[in-house]
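Project standup — Tuesday

K.O.: blocked on the structure for the chain from last sprint. Re-posting the sequence here as requested.
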Amino acid sequence: MNARTPIATEAVRTKIADTLTIPRTELTDDTVLTDLSIDSIALIEMALELEEDYDVVFQQSDLEGLRTVADVTALVEARLQAT
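H.V.: unblocked you, prediction finished:
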């Protein structure tokens, strides 16, 4: 069963877009984070905001494996399911 819901996916995309100050319409599940010129500081900022919004905690190793927008959404969902 896929736990992903359109609301969660859209909320995560919106948070990424807001953090990177890019139009939300530029993001799909397949969007590669490095194509958005996301650097390590922006990635950490985004992670901190997602942690606060969803009351979850990410480890540094979690962030190292993120490649796409779908990866970010999956990470948030995994942490939500673990709580």
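K.O.: great, moving the ticket to review. The CA atoms of residues 51 and 58 lie 7 Å apart. The helical segments are 6-20, 40-54, 60-64, 69-82.
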